[in-house]
């Protein structure tokens, strides 16, 4: 355990601490493939800026951001956590996100509230599957991103070779911001590349010029750009996501971390503030102790929030339904503010809110007549695939059944993608990203709620999509009517990929009382949860084409019954096809095992996209059905004498081949 600060290496930059009022706040996410050293880097950043007086350790379970008992015990980050430090007049809120792919939903929510990111790589393992997934998403969002190559003092660490891998597999224009001496040894040292040095300035200018035409003209035609020009071009191109500064160092030893802190403060710009003056924000994390008060982390983009203020939160469910929650803030703690400060929360900052028992992760704060984007990045939607596994949960003691359901619903409020719902036989259905997440949920139920639960083996979650258009109608007969007193006509048609289920009207909204309209829409969304083949129907458009009622006789129950019947008929006429989830995979194997591994992967239904490598190892990449992932993971050690490494993540879906059994 480190008990005092390490001395920065030669050429490193250690920013000064707070020197006056905060000019602006940056919200920066720390992201990485699992075990790259992300939480250790967060701990070092807080230590080197004076927030912590001693370094915590992931192995010892005493880090600042991994506060949960399960996080400490397992040494992994499960929930996003926020910590803050100040550099000069800039406050930096660090959002430490999970690295394991089972908790990718936490990463997705964090990305929506960030001004920039630091993507951590291991100098030993290099560019990994999770690294590529995260970087593709960061580039799609054009989110300013710095790269930090960690563990340069570990055996097997690489610098020049890894930089080439970064250019080939991650980003087109990586800008090295440091030189490494003695990589792969305990004596590894980092020297920052400062633009004040003419040789370093020339190298920086030549690299940044690959993405900056103005700087390119100066580099080619002269006169050579000065310090200010190089700094400005580097900052501008980092801000628009066309170049990515690369820092080298060691989170445990402290090398290179000072230069990274300086880069975070200098190169990542704050998000623009909205101009309406009305509160806009996003709830990106919720904590609910078993017998404590629910708290929520909110990022504000416009307006102000104060204690005792009434707010309205808007929520869109997985099936597209929208609801509104109103309540009063009883307490508000701004992250990074002096102890005892109680607000207000101003744009660009994050606060912990109390007093809203129904608040849920993903809720959006905005006026009722404003689109519910919360001011977050407009291009943030569903960034990663939805959960692909389903398990059924039952309490071992029947007396705990109600408590189990309540605990799972509370967990779903913290992670809405869990999608808890009732299943047959008194069980509860739970959607998951992976087996590790299932283990964490089981341990949480046991440790925090005192509930022992049994989980069925996970099965892949398929979906159905319409293959054509189908219509059906139920009408109130003019004479001798028998059945629901409701006229309902529906048309089912294919929707755009990724659009989910959409409900629309061709009838006049005033043609039915509001309660009847609501009954039709609710029944359509309920009915789409189970299509003709037993799976939820998605990417479809359901249109109400006819409606009618008889004043004293019709009731909402009639419309629910009629809608369910008509929807089933319309879906049968439209026809649906089952789609199964796929995973993208990377398998690192020794050269002599390459042929055998490729043959077995192909036999499991894998579509191999790429093989690359050299003398020591080969990388096999591709996609395969999610139902085959476990089998491939189990095959790899035997085919590679235990030397192979496997990583995979959800990657869309494909139609299920005719005659294929999901259990096969």
Entry keywords:
664 residues; alpha+beta; seven-stranded mixed beta sheet; seven-stranded antiparallel beta sheet; 15 helices; 26% helix; 28% strand; globular; disordered N terminus
Description of the molecule:
- By secondary structure, the protein is an alpha+beta fold.
- It contains 15 helices and 31 strands.
- The strands form six sheets. The protein has a seven-stranded mixed beta sheet with strand order 2-3-1-4-5-9-6, sandwiched between helices.
- Strand 18 (421-422) and strand 19 form a beta hairpin.
- Helix 6 packs parallel to helix 8, helix 12 (514-527) runs parallel beside helix 13 and helix 14 runs antiparallel to helix 15.
- It is globular and about 95 Å long.
- It starts with 23 loop residues before the first strand and ends in a 9-residue tail after the last strand.
- Mean pLDDT is 84; it is low at 1-19 and 70-78.
């Amino acid at each position: 355990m480190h008990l005092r600060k390490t001395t920065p290496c030669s050429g490193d930059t250690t920013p000064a601490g707070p020197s006056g009022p905060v000019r602006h706040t940056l919200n920066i996410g720390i992201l990485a493939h699992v075990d790259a050293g992300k939480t250790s880097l967060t701990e070092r950043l807080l230590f080197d800026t004076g927030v912590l007086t001693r370094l915590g350790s992931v192995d010892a379970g005493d880090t600042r951001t991994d506060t949960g008992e399960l996080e400490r015990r397992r040494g992994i980050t499960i929930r996003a956590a926020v910590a803050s430090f100040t550099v000069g007049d800039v406050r930096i809120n660090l959002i430490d996100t999970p690295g394991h792919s089972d908790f990718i939903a936490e990463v997705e929510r964090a990305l929506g509230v960030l001004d920039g990111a630091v993507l951590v790589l291991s100098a030993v393992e290099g560019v990994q599957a999770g690294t590529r997934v995260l970087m593709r998403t960061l580039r799609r969002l054009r989110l300013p991103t710095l790269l930090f190559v960690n563990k340069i003092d570990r055996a097997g660490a690489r610098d020049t070779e890894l930089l080439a891998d970064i250019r080939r597999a991650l980003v087109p224009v990586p800008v090295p911001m440091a030189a490494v001496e003695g990589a792969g040894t305990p004596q590894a040292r980092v020297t920052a590349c400062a633009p004040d040095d003419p040789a370093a300035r020339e190298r920086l200018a030549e690299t940044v010029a690959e993405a900056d035409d103005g700087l390119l003209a100066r580099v080619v035609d002269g006169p050579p750009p000065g310090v200010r020009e190089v700094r400005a071009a580097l900052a501008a191109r980092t801000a628009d996501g066309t170049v990515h500064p690369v820092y080298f160092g060691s989170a445990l030893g402290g090398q290179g971390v000072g230069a990274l802190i300086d880069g975070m403060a200098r190169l990542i710009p704050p998000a623009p503030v909205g101009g309406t003056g009305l509160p806009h924000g996003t709830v990106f994390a919720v904590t609910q102790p078993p017998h404590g008060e629910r708290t929520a982390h909110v990022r504000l983009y416009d307006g102000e929030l104060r204690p005792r203020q009434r707010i309205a939160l808007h929520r869109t469910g997985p099936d597209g339904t929208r609801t509104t929650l109103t309540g009063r803030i009883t307490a508000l703690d701004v992250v990074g503010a002096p102890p005892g400060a109680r607000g207000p929360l101003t744009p660009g900052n994050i606060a912990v809110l109390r007093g809203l028992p129904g608040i849920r992760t993903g809720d959006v704060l905005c006026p009722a007549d404003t689109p519910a984007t919360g001011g977050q990045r407009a291009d943030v939607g569903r960034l990663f695939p939805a959960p692909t596994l389903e398990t059924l949960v039952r309490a071992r003691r029947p007396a705990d059944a109600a408590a189990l359901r309540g605990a799972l619903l509370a967990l779903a409020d913290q992670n809405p993608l869990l999608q808890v719902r009732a299943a047959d036989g008194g069980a509860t259905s739970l959607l998951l990203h992976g087996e590790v997440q299932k283990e964490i949920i089981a341990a949480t139920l046991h440790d925090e709620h005192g509930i022992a639960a049994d989980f069925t083996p996970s099965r892949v979650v398929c979906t159905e999509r319409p293959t054509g258009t189908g219509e059906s109608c139920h009408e109130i007969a003019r004479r001798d009517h028998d059945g629901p007193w409701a006229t309902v006509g529906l048309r089912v048609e294919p929707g755009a990929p990724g659009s989910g289920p959409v409900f629309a009207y061709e009838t006049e909204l005033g043609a039915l009382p509001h309660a009847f309209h609501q009954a039709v829409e609710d029944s359509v969304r309920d009915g789409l949860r189970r299509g003709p083949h037993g799976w939820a129907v998605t990417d479809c458009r359901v249109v109400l084409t006819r409606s009618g009622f008889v004043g004293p006789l019709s009731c909402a129950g009639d419309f629910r019954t009629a809608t369910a019947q008509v929807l089933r008929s319309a879906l049968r006429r439209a026809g649906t096809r089952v789609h199964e989830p796929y995973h993208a995979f990377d398998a690192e194997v020794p050269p002599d095992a390459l042929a055998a591994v490729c043959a077995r992967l192909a036999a499991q239904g894998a579509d191999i996209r790429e093989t690359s490598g050299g003398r020591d190892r080969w990388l096999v990449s591709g996609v395969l059905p999610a139902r085959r992932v476990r089998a491939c993971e189990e095959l790899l050690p035997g085919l590679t004498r235990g030397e192979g490494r496997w990583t995979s993540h959800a990657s869309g879906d494909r139609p299920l081949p005719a005659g294929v059994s999901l259990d096969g």
